[in-house]
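Intended use. Records like the one below are meant for learning the mapping from a protein sequence to its folded structure. Do not use them to infer anything beyond what is encoded.
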Amino acid sequence: MSLTIHPDVKAKVDSKKWFYTDTVKEHFFSPKNIFVSDTEAEEYAKTADGIGMVGSPACLEGDTLVHVNFDLKKLKELTKDHKVLSHDGTYNKITKIYRPKYKGQLIKIKNQFGETMATEDHLIYAKQVPKTKTF
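Structure written out for the chain above:
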């Protein structure tokens, strides 16, 4: 599996202060251990020198609506019983919920469907990256 990241996205992320080492960032941008089943991941974990979590400390605001179990729900209402819609169009079960304290600036993203509040380092999946600086 190959992950292609648009150069503008990589440049934006690289310019931000990261909480992670260069090695962790390399694995983030060029993942090598992607598994198709829990069994495969469990087998790998038996000999791995370290196991990390998918994601980053970047977050969305609790009132953000997400597609859950073929419906919309606020993030702050989610439990492990829910399945959320992912970037590839499949619904995935929530395995862990993080509710970190955040004191930085939030960014408001508006489109025809409403608005989303996110930390400034939260990556947003886009089918097409606009050529302008505002979008």
